[in-house]
Amino acid sequence: MQPKSSPKHFKETMGTLPAESSTMELQQLDRDAAPGQTERAKWLLSSPNPPSLWHELRSSIRETVLPQERKKQPRTQGHVLFLQGLFPILKWGRSYSAAKFKKDLMAGLTLASLCIPQSIGYANLAKLDPQYGLYTSVVPPLIYALMGSSREIAIGPVAVVSLLLSAMIQKVVDPSVDPVAYRSLVFTVTFFTGAFQAVFGIFRLGFLVDFLSHAAIVGFMGGAAIVIGLQQLKGLLGISNFTTKTDVVSVMEAVLYALHHSWYPLNFVLGCSFLIFILITRFIGTRNKKLFWLPAMAPLFSVILSTLIVYLTKADKHGIKIVKHFKGGLNPSSVHQLKFGGPHVGEAAKIGSICALIALTEAIAVGRSFASVKGYHLDGNKEMVAMGFMNIVGSLTSCYAATGSFSRTAVNFSAGCETVVSNIVMAITVLVSLLLITRLLYYTPLAILASIILSALPGLIDLNEAYNIWKVDKLDFIVCLGAFFGVLFGSVEIGLLIAVAISFAKIMVDSIKPSTQVLGKIPGTDIFCDILQYPAATQIPGILIVSISSGTLCFANASFIRERILRRVFDENETKENTKEGVLVLILDMSNVMNIDTSGIYSLQELHKKLISGGTKLAVANPRWKVITKLKKAKFIDKIEAGWVFFNIADAVEYCRRFKINVLDNC
């Protein structure tokens, strides 16, 4: 006679029990169930439908534009709150004081002293005339001051975005051949950059920025810093003809060629002298926080002193390369220069989307870093809207793409800024400079601009963070290296493409082949944990609890998860054969699964069929809102019977224990 508890006998019994007998047993189990357990299961099965896609989209737009306080206010104040949500300056401006203005004034003047020489240098990096860098430090900061919510961030041109523009746009239009068409394309790209940023913010698409992971940004910034530094060898060595390529091999070939033919050592001596001076002042400012103004003033002092030296000694007649062309005055309109119908509009949109992501990533990272120090929250979506509108307006007023600068924001913070009024002070100071002193900058040597940019590059190379990435996650380090070497030996686009491709591959591997864990009960508790992570957790005889670690059960991973679960059931039956104990019930913990598609539902149906044919019941524990709604609509709940859907694992285990006892009694 075969033992009552053998797995074979369980399966034969389950397969031959009449439907009426099985139903009666389940009804008896339901009657024996604890009242709380039955009530909780009813809550789960009778939950309302989740919000529709259109409702979620409408709510996202409302939350982005309108402040949360509007719900608590009468309708008469709705327009005021709307304007305050769109222009935060209207809210905090009412409590602005003279004491705060004094701090913002000093911070803004200090910021301008650093911003003016950097803006001229970054314009040169973007292959634009110097005045366009100063234009970019006037209009975008003013627009951001009205719409932005960060108190410390300093807006203007930055090295990485300037490199992006020159590296990608000059492949479409050569600035040395047709500077007018190149400039028009820069403004068009800036318009698309702002448009993409505004759309990202309005529709709460900030997650798109996260496609550029932290590791990718670290690698990209490091590679870009080296490329930018190599590009500055043109000004530092006084080279007239230089390669338009950005990869390290082409740049070094151009430098070696120039060293054997035409270069002017005086440029190198002048540039290196002031570079050493700027780095020394930065070292002093780092050691003594009270002297923060010294490294901030050093670039402007270097520009003024070097310009005087060149002017008084007529060094430009002896090989020193100077700026020469420098047009001052107010920002001219560039509306007529935007080209939306030309042959390059597609390229402009593509470059604009890349610049939008890079600029947003840098700005939001900078803004949130300093906001956390000051103890307030920065809304990323509102920041995107502010950045978008400032670049759209900037593209209409002869500005190129602007964003938040880490180096200038650090100076602004150290100078004691209280609000974005420091940006307004900086913008007005730069505007006054455009009106009064641009003619004096005619003799500014290019070697000084190169040294100013070079002095800002060490902050972009973060070796400590790269080492931390290596220690924590080797795959992330591969992403970092891919971005770094892609930018260094390929191009800016190739570096970004490699980083995003590796990141996506990592996501796809994790999504297609998620892990499934066997859970056991911690003795003396109702807590169920992974038996591999917690050896103290014990399995319940006859009951197998499997947890799905994926956030979604979809076409990409449904078949893989189904086969993994079936294999676990098979392995469990094989290992328990000697103890004459098989798997009577499989409890599927779906607490981690946030969503499911039709492929996932079909896979569960196939799993249920195979389990039933093998004499194993399927129970579902803790399905999430969208999951249980779709399972009900697909009538999957009817197939496994509503009594086998549970509020949590503890309820499922208690029910399945009684089911096991009933089956054993009938064997």
From TrEMBL:
Gene3D superfamilies: STAS domain. Keywords: Membrane, Transmembrane, Transmembrane helix, Transport. Residues 550-656 form the STAS domain. Pfam families: STAS, Sulfate_transp. This is STAS domain-containing protein. One of its GO terms (molecular function) is secondary active sulfate transmembrane transporter activity. It is a multi-pass membrane protein. One of its GO terms (cellular component) is membrane. InterPro entries: S04_transporter_CS, SLC26A/SulP_dom, SLC26A/SulP_fam, STAS_dom, STAS_dom_sf. Residues 1-25 are annotated as: Disordered. The keyword Membrane applies. PANTHER family: SULFATE TRANSPORTER. The chain crosses the membrane at residues 143-165, 185-205, 211-230, 266-284, 291-312, 384-403, 415-437, 443-463, 475-505, 540-560. It is found in: Membrane.
